[in-house]
Amino acid sequence: MTADLSQLVKAYDVRGVVPDQWDESLAELFGAAFARVTGADAIVVGHDMRPSSPGLSGAFARGAAALGVDVTEIGLCSTDQLYYASGALNLPGAMFTASHNPAQYNGIKMCRAGAAPVGQDTGLADIRALVERWSDEGAPESTATPGTLTRRDTLKDYAAHLRSLVDLTAIRPLKVVVDAGNGMGGHTVPTVFEGLPLTLVPMYFELDGTFPNHEANPLDPANIVDLQKRVREEGADLGIAFDGDADRCFVVDENGAPVSPSAITALVASRELAKHGGSGTVIHNLITSWSVPEVVRENGGTPVRTRVGHSFIKEEMAKTGAIFGGEHSAHYYFRDFWNADTGMLAALHVLAALGGQDGTLSALVAQYDRYAGSGEINSTVADQKARLAAIRAAYEGRDGVTIDELDGLTVTATDWWFNVRASNTEPLLRLNVEARDEKGMTTVRDEALAIIRG
Question: What range does the domain containing 195 cover?
Fold first, then answer.
């Protein structure tokens, strides 16, 4: 019977419940399909700490090897460590992770050589079609000479590469609390931070894919409460939280207050522009703060606005030769890291910036956090299109108001803007509002929500 992959293959990756939606036999077919679609002689495969990850990644490796492809298995790694291996070895790669999803989920993030993304239009639809066909007709015939399976540890090389991209020589001693959420940050942080003048206070570094302490999703305020409390108790200079596969990082200041990912984007952008001679393109998605393009221009750069989503960011980076890109979801992309996202490199930039001067993190980021933002507010709606049409009708024609449809609806005035986007997977509308002050933001937020919730 043909496998139904409609709920499993997403826009940018494979993700679903194990074993209900997929298992090792299906993973083996994905490995063969990945080998066929990329046409590669060799690939690299890694996995996170979820209980199902070693079995799934091993099956994927066998599927590729059966078609004559040599497989380098790097074992336990963060997603950006897999991107490092793909870039440094110049091989297509597959990472087994479901990022911040609950324990019963697993998935595959795939890339071509040099960490170039694989999404629906860049190979994922072809991979899905092959897996569906083979699940119905039987696996493809193995080649006469199967590929080899080789183990390789890339952690030290990954850490050395990241540290070569940031000048860490001037860092003063800092106390930093890191919440790994029982995810892959617990594996990578000790090696990356080794030898730096940091007093590291580790939280939940034990690798445990059942996430016994909290979900490994630092964008949900409930999941950083422990970190905030510990930073205050320890009198630490800052706190850093990583998601499950440690490709995103979230920062809190010395008071335990969350630092907006837009402020981190602006901070890192200013440093990357300085590193590249005071010029270059910086990509930001359309729900990052007004402060991001402002800071980019102030530092000699050219800001480019894109849709939300890593495939759009990476596409635009490749097209424009951008040096850096940031999203409000705490994904940070670097040209020097094959245009791939790495939360660890962003964290090193924050440590270098804070440790290179005497002030506090809250004082440092104040210059990059200039406006009042609502954060993302989700509303369940029966008819997304009708609600979006109602918003357009309410604001169209107002004096000094412009509307664009790059991604959902963005409504902009002199002192405020908001964006409303439909979720692809749930009956939700996502609202983000920003204004010059808290009062203005609250007024616009409440008016927009009244229309959305109708």
Answer: 157-255
Residue ranges, the chain, pLDDT below 70: 1-2
Q: Which amino acid, one-letter code, is at 61? A: A
Q: How is 421-433 classified by DSSP, letter by letter?
A: EE-SSSSEEEEEE
Q: Do the bridges between strand 428-435 and strand 377-380 make them parallel or antiparallel, or are there none, so unpaired?
A: antiparallel
117 plus 34 within the same structural domain: yes
387 shares its domain with 342:
no
Pairing mode of beta strands 149-151, 70-76: parallel
The pLDDT value recorded for residue 149 is 98
Q: Residue 93's pLDDT is what?
A: 98
Give the C-alpha separation, 351 to 178, whole Å: 12
pLDDT at 238: 98
4 lies in some domain? no
Q: Are 241 and 179 in contact (CB under 8 A)?
A: yes
Please count the structural domains in the chain: 4
Last residue of a domain, one of 127, 153, 179: 153
Among candidate residues 53, 99, 289, 329, the one labeled active-site is 99
Question: Cα-flanking dihedrals φ and ψ of residue 108, to 5°?
Answer: -135, 125
Q: How far is CA 32 from CA 76, 91, 121, in A?
A: 22, 16, 19
pLDDT in tens, 369-423: 999 999 999 999 999 999 999 999 999 999 999 999 999 999 999 999 999 999 8
6 within some domain = no
At residue 195, what is the residue type?
Answer: G
Whole-angstrom distance, CA of residue 294 vs CA of residue 162: 27
* CA gap 345, 47 in Å, rounded: 20
CA-based nearest residue to 262, from 312, 303, 231, 311? 303
Under 8 Å between Cβ of 343 and 248: yes
Residue 257: Cβ within 10 Å count: 16
**291 in active site:** no
